[in-house]
């Protein structure tokens, strides 16, 4: 399968190229960067830290979608929406790893998913997708005597907070409790906040160094505390999941899918 990577010079872009190059049955169709980026015109193989492959980085996403059997996008919400529109027009599957997506971006992605296959997940790692299921189950069993707090840490360059994965874990906890996430999410505390509201799901975001992504969901109850943690040792776990998702798309009907579908975790 020929896979295209958009945002190919980014932290995840390079990881995705290395993963796609090393995976059986996968070939790199091309890579796209934003116009004016230093990487445009460079050989993709060299950019990924390997041998030259004779394919150069462009800033033409339309041409990439026409060449590739599926495109992987870990970039920015605005660019992801633009790519979802091209995916819909060309009928090519799109794998979206970009986080920080707001309701209007999600709506645009849903419109595209009526016409093509879209896999979207705030975290493509197998372990995190298992954790989502565990959090949902534990939240269903424990009542609001157990306060749910979600702590995440990421590298110093991350631009959105709480992380998309932390929010997904919060949504899993809310679903387990049978409540609306937006009604209980406490996304930050500062100053005289008053006592904790029963049933709230709290978030705390730490930023520093080169941490690939740590998430802990804490259930703090009377006299005991349960903590469920996932730690990403490096970004290759996300790239592996994204390339598996691209392979999984072949022959699927249009629709919006998640990593739970790809990994068969339901
Ligand atoms: P990064 O800033 O290193 O890379 C983003 C790349 O996108 C940059 O190279 C940038 O130039 C490029 N880009 C921006 N606009 C573009 C455009 N119009 N056309 C083409 N390329 C464009 O960031 P990163 O650490 O690689 O993370 C990217 C996104 O992926 C973030 O939203 C991050 O939270 C998310 N992420 C998701 C997962 C997951 O498993 N779903 C894992 C890690 C990171």
Please, could you describe this protein's structure?
Helix content is 38%, strand content 22%. With 266 residues, the chain is of the alpha/beta class. The model has no long low-confidence stretch (mean pLDDT 96). The longest helix has 16 residues, at 126-141. The protein contains ten helices and eleven strands. It has helices spanning 11-22, 44-47, 61-67, 77-90, 103-113, 126-141, 164-177, 181-184, 236-249, 259-263; strands at 2-6, 27-32, 70-73, 94-96, 117-120, 147-154, 185-186, 201-207, 214-221, 224-231, 255-257. The strands form two sheets. It has a six-stranded parallel β-sheet with strand order 2-1-3-4-5-11, with helices on both faces. The protein has a five-stranded mixed β-sheet with strand order 7-8-6-9-10. Helix 1 crosses helix 9. The chain binds nicotinamide-adenine-dinucleotide.
Q: Proportion of β residues? A: 15-25%
Give the overall form. elongated
Structural category is alpha/beta
Order of helix and strand elements from N to C terminus: EHEHHEHEHEHEHHEEEEHEH
Instruction: Enumerate the strands of the largest sheet in spatial order, edge to edge or round the barrel.
Output: 2-1-3-4-5-11
Ligand inventory: nicotinamide-adenine-dinucleotide
Helix content: 25-40%
- How far do the termini sit from each other? 26 Å
User: What's the gyration radius in Å?
Assistant: 19 Å
Number of DSSP helical runs: 10
Q: Main beta sheet: strand number and arrangement?
A: 6 strands, parallel
Number of separate strands? 11
The stretches of 5 or more residues where confidence is low (pLDDT under 50) are none
Q: Overall pLDDT, averaged?
A: 96
